[in-house]
């Protein structure tokens, strides 16, 4: 009798697990979360892949002239995956100039607006549905969405600021794939208020 009861309990547990929504079982991977943050921060442009450094991704701006400064950015996702930090340094040949620490919280997005062109986005005119194939620029807003601290390595005073806006460009096919993936994570995993209202 005890064996039969145990077998029935196991069967019920397996059935219950199978009936759980797929979304609840399949959280985005760490790499997916980093890719979403990178897309929203405008990193990895032109299909460049980051270097993996322990638990972070390191991005380098592309420069044609080796004597020109380049931006080095280290992106880390925190224990709360919808939050990330990026440490950026402007590197001149042989020296550093400015260090920036950025913090982003995707769960703070309270409004999402899509536009068909940069001109419409700048003018804040003619918005299109977010799922429209015509959407080329997406504006995400929310209080304290993106905060930044800048420190001059030459000894200047540090500056702290918070922005309530992130712009997501989806001009070509690659950007659209990355952008749609990032928006899906913001909506489905981070449960941003902007998407709960829909």
Explain the overall architecture.
The chain has one domain (28-196). Strands 1, 2, 3, 4, 5, 6, 7, 8 and 9 form a nine-stranded antiparallel beta sheet that branches. The protein has helices at residues 2-19, 22-25, 30-40, 118-123, 173-189, 193-196, and strands spanning 51-53, 56-60, 70-77, 83-92, 95-105, 111-115, 127-128, 137-152, 159-169. It has six helices and nine strands, in the order αααββββββαβββαα. It is globular, with a radius of gyration of 21 Å. The chain is 30% helix and 36% strand. By secondary structure, it is an alpha+beta fold. A hairpin with a 6-residue loop joins β8 and β9 (159-169). α3 (30-40) packs across α5 (173-189).
Short structural summary:
By secondary structure, the protein is α+β, with helices and mostly antiparallel strands.
Report the end-to-end length measured between terminal Cα atoms. Answer: 51 Å
Work out the helix count. Answer: 6
Low-confidence stretches: 1-25
Question: How would you sum up the major sheet?
Answer: 9 strands, antiparallel
Q: State the helicity in percent bands.
A: 25-40%
Q: What overall geometry do the principal axes of the alpha carbons give?
A: globular
Name the helix and strand elements from N-terminus to C-terminus, one letter apiece: HHHEEEEEEHEEEHH
Could you give the count of β-strands?
9
Number of domains: 1
Beta-strand percentage range:
35-45%
Category by helix and strand content: alpha+beta
Kindly provide the radius of gyration, computed on alpha-carbon positions and rounded to a whole number of angstroms: 21 Å
Overall pLDDT: 79
């Amino acid at each position: 009798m005890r064996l039969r009861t145990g077998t029935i309990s196991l069967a019920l547990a397996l059935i219950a697990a199978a009936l759980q929504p797929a979304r609840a079982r399949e959280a985005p991977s760490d790499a997916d979360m980093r890719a979403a943050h990178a897309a929203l921060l405008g990193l990895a442009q032109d299909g460049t892949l980051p270097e993996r450094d322990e638990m972070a991704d390191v991005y380098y701006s592309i420069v044609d002239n080796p004597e020109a400064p380049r931006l080095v950015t280290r992106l880390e996702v925190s224990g709360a995956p919808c939050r990330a930090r990026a440490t950026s340094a402007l590197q001149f040949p042989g020296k550093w100039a400015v260090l920036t620490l950025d913090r982003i919280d995707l769960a703070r997005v309270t409004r999402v607006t899509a536009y068909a062109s940069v001109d419409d986005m700048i003018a804040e005119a003619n918005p299109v549905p977010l799922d429209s194939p015509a959407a080329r620029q997406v504006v995400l807003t929310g209080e304290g969405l993106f905060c930044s601290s800048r420190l001059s390595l030459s000894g200047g005073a540090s500056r702290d600021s918070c922005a309530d806006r992130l712009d997501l460009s989806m001009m070509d096919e690659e950007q659209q794939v990355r952008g749609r993936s990032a928006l899906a994570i913001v909506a489905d995993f981070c449960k941003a208020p902007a998407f709960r209202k829909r």
